[in-house]
TrEMBL record, chains A, B:
Taxonomic classification: Bacteria, Pseudomonadati, Pseudomonadota, Alphaproteobacteria, Rhodobacterales
Protein name, as recorded: Gfo/Idh/MocA family oxidoreductase
Signal peptide boundaries: none
Annotated organism of origin: Tabrizicola piscis
GO molecular function: nucleotide binding
Domain (Gfo/Idh/MocA-like oxidoreductase N-terminal) ranges: 4-113
Length: 305, 305
């Protein structure tokens, strides 16, 4: 029987990904939404989270899709009310708040799942399996997309805590940290800020082990989400955000669609709740915090949507 | 019998604190120094770290005092060469690199000690003991000092990774995270950068639970290192960087000197090596990374030494 879930924060990512994934899931029944601005046809809609938690004791799991800065208060309230919690990426505005949520969930025997949707892309698991016994000699991430296309008018991405180009870049880092056979750490970074904004619109990162990354949010035309890895057994490339895999320049797996990522996240959440366990890996967020700690700041033209 | 130790990075903090602490210690014998620019009278002096590691197998412990950005390479080389490692604060330029060192030390059965000297201040342990069963209703850190006095000409503090005012501020955060009975997380911050510098010269932080902090590196005249805590049992104040304690406005413990901090660190290191354990608490550094991730950036007058 499907387990009831509430979806909180009905914005673009909820409509584009969470609602279709839940509609197609045999594990879950979307039983309520909570949002000041959005709702889903035919689903019980609340504007106040505390009211929903009180009115619907039959809903034992909540999925939080709002931006990272307001998310902590909802996650804390949900755990205090005995609900399992699934967090969109990044799992919080700070590392310390996620540590607190981890301790709270563990103390109450509840599931906390810090999701990284790009890790569920079709070709990530085969890439990880292939790399497991290889030596990585070099890797380069190219993550170039158009913020106007993916976050139209969403000024919060340029406000403190909105992460700027690290909002997509953390997807690349979530794949990198999943597939590399040994961890790396940042050694230097340059961060390019629009003169009128609080978060970077582009970033170049250098890690130990010959790993580099370029993130840019100003790419019009074709979008690029590639991770190219050189190994002692030849090159591997992940393209289309982890959805297509090449080994030695020959495509061996993949689809162009990212529509499988969120169904896989919800299937994983169902398994975590059934097992009574949590899944919180902060390593992609640690790399972003490290970049914002260690990075050299450059300034460029103002940016407006 | 005293255990032999090498001191690496003979700059201001080594001369001011590490060398006197080791000279007074019954646990340790300063057996070598490694530095391109400094040495200690009467002590075997090397300019190359690999050469010292190869030449002095009798030295099983190294204490690393150079700035955080170059420190990782030394720590990694020391652990690879089977030496125990003591790290000045902050323990690294990135969180990820310290995670890597932790895993490396654990894998080799070596001691890694990420020191926080301010936690060894005279009044920190009694403050922690008093707060353990109290409810904290509010706390405020005031950490105002003169960078020209404490870091004369040290431009690295304003370079990427130098941490700026968080270099002293992390001392306050190391005390805060030690004494509070429950963890807090950053909720907002403002960071003030000199127009010509890469790291902030002042910062205002707000945490959960009514905890706030103001750090400023432009304080001439009297210097201020206070932590004031309101509780359900009245106020507690730590002054002089954790060296003096007031309860209910009455001083109950303390000295004005910080000269006890480094001897206590080296005594703790001796105990950790004897016990075969490590001590790496990254929570002060997590709060700094969170502030640099979530903080709003302001710009002020250029700063020059």
């Amino acid at each position: 029987m499907a387990r009831k879930i509430a979806l909180v924060g009905i914005g673009k990512i909820a409509r584009d990904q969470h609602v279709p994934a839940l509609a197609a899931s045999a594990d879950w029944e979307l039983a309520a939404t909570v949002s000041r601005s959005g709702s889903v046809d035919g689903i019980d809609a609340y504007t106040d989270f505390a009211e929903m938690l009180a009115a619907r004791p039959d809903i034992d799991t909540v999925s939080l899709c709002m931006p990272p800065v307001p998310r902590y208060a909802y996650a804390e309230a949900a755990l205090q009310a005995g609900r399992h919690v699934m967090l969109e990426k990044p799992p919080g505005a700070t590392l310390a708040e996620v540590h607190t949520l981890q301790a709270m969930a563990a103390g109450k025997g509840l599931t906390l799942f810090a999701t990284w949707h790009s890790r569920m892309a079709h070709a990530v698991a085969p890439a990880k399996a292939w790399l497991a016994d290889k030596t990585v000699t070099r890797a380069h991430i190219t993550w170039r997309e158009d913020v106007r296309k993916w976050h139209p008018g969403q000024d919060w991405v340029f406000e403190p805590g909105g992460m700027g180009v690290f909002d997509p870049g953390i997807n690349a880092l979530s794949i990198l940290t999943e597939i590399l056979p040994a961890p790396v750490h940042l050694t230097s970074a340059t961060l390019t800020f629009p003169a009128n904004r609080q978060t970077p619109i582009a970033a170049d990162l250098a890690f130990s082990g010959g790993v580099t990354a370029e993130f840019d949010w100003r790419q019009t035309g074709p979008q690029t989400w590639n991770i190219e890895v050189d190994t002692n057994a030849g090159p591997l490339a992940l393209r289309m955000g982890g959805n297509r895999l090449e080994l030695g320049g020959v495509e061996v797996a993949g689809e162009n669609s990212i529509m499988g990522e969120y169904p896989a996240l919800y299937a994983r959440m169902a398994q975590l709740v059934a097992d009574g366990t949590s899944d919180v890996d902060l390593s992609p967020m640690v790399h972003v915090a490290d970049a914002l700690t260690l990075g050299r700041r450059l300034f460029t033209d103002p940016f407006d949507f």
